[in-house]
Amino acid sequence: xxxxxxxxxxxxxxxxxxxxxxxxHLGGMLAAVADVTLIGRPAAMDEIGRLGLTLTGPAEARxxxxxxxxxxxxxxxxxxxxxxxxxxxxxxxxAARDLAGHLTPGxxxxxxxxxxxxxxxxxxxxxxxRVLAGMVPYNVVRTGPAAFHQGSGxxxxxxxxxxxxxxxxxxxxxxxxxxxxxxxxxxxxxMPAVQAAKLLMNLNNAVNALSGLPLxxxxxxxxxxxxxxxCQREALAAFRAAxxxxxxxxxVPPGWTPAVLGLPDALFRRLAGASLRIDGQARSSMWEDxxxxxxxxxGSLQGEIVTLAGQARLAAPANARLVExxxxxxxxxxxxxxxxxxxDLLAELAGAAG
Length: 354
Fold this sequence. Notes:
The chain is an alpha/beta fold. Helix content is about 40%, strand content about 15%. It contains 15 helices and 12 strands. The strands form 2 sheets. An 8-stranded mixed sheet has the order 5-2-1-6-7-8-11-12, sandwiched between helices. It has a 4-stranded mixed sheet with strand order 4-3-10-9. Helix 3 (about 90-100) runs parallel beside helix 4, helix 7 crosses helix 12 and helix 7 packs across helix 14. The termini are far apart. The model has no long low-confidence stretch (mean pLDDT about 90).
């Protein structure tokens, strides 16, 4: 006797605006269960069109994806259920302007970007649309034409949002698709605290970029960790002054992290081994930007801390000096910027503190 079965939910239509490393990773992972459109630079989209998209990751995971729609402008975002915004922070306002003329009612926009303010910028430019904050905790680096590698683990996070039509919350549709695709995604109701915690982590991007080393090797060096600890202490003071309490995303509370970073290498490896579970290919996106001659996001990372500290009449000399050093590196020919040793960079930051 036939049995009634619930109909399968329709495939989501997802557009990814700013399909670089993170955008291609998210879009590629979701393509197994959704109709995905990647919107990115012409050269990058041409590579994916010719070669297909290859994603690699921890434990030798590998996916090859060809069932994608590719575009170089925002027009194909029309009709999407979701738009994932992964452009750099400086391009957020322009992204909102590009999307504004194409989005249809009901489209939900998710910002998977660094920094604290991108969701607010998108809301200002896209009135009438739900904009949710998201966070990707791990590193993704381009390893070749149309190939991207996830070098560390962690769980993507997304604002649960408010009640959605038909029940549930705004974020549940994307969360269900992510689960079906094997993409770990958790819904949160404390995204400002999550974003602050991610910013603390991202303060290492500049240290890694200036070192020129893989992340695992750089974080294994005590002097480099001491540079990051200086930045985080300044950030935590600025956060306290602003009334912002970072979420605890790992085994160590955020307030303890600078002290743990300063431990001798052997003790650090024992107490914070999870932070070193990074494969040998992983590097920061800022390092990749400098190698390719692109403007970095230093203004939304160390620059954000300098701004917050200034608003509270606090000093943030380590963060301010790193902004200057990265700007100098941006002005060098691609791949020629100075590679700072840990002791030299630490001495430079100590000198900035007077």
